[in-house]
Amino acid sequence: MGNKQIKNIKKKLLSDNYYILNKVTFDYMMKNGVWVNQMREVYDRGDGAGILLYNKQKKTIILTKQFRMPTYLNDNKNGMLVEVAAGMLDKDNPEACIIRETEEEVGYRLKEVKKVYEAYSSPGVMTEKMHFFIGEYTDAMKVSEGGGLDSEHEDIEVLVLPFETAVNMLNNGEIVDTRTIVLLQYAIIHKLFE
Questions:
Q1: Sheet harboring 6-15: ordered strands across?
Q2: Which of 11, 121, 148, 169 gives 22 a disulfide partner, CB atoms 3.0 to 4.6 angstroms apart?
Q3: Which residues pair with 135 in a beta bridge?
Q4: Which residues contact 180 (CB under 8 A, 6 or more apart)?
């Protein structure tokens, strides 16, 4: 940590039930040279990876649909969220993680993926860094129905959609997951299907 504008960092554990929530106090030097004491609650749930799966020949993508309690508590009427396949790194490297998650969630075994971005998810409160990938799939790569792991109580619906349908869902507000929005916009900007 090499920022000379920060000193006296202190952490107090608030919760470690599932992930780690710390109260962090620190002194921060403002632009005018004055030191102020600040406090933040910081949630550390590890880093994650997400992937946009696409089939150039069929002009389709694979997304998932599952219940997300935090969205249900914040104005998502049924709590269901359409999103890219994604997961926590769980001490894997990002590529290994997303290949594992792809097979668990949607049932396709990928041999290679392409990393396109790396970004902080919600830097005001979370330490999480997301690794964004794209990966081309074919019917021959399908090894199961997907749906997630029973041991993790996952109940994931696999959606194979025409790319244009997904873009329409993005434009009319049916897709509201940031990771999915970022990867769909990547596909649009980089003309993935042309």
A1: 6-15, 20-29, 35-44
A2: 11
A3: 53
A4: 50, 52, 63, 82, 83, 84, 170
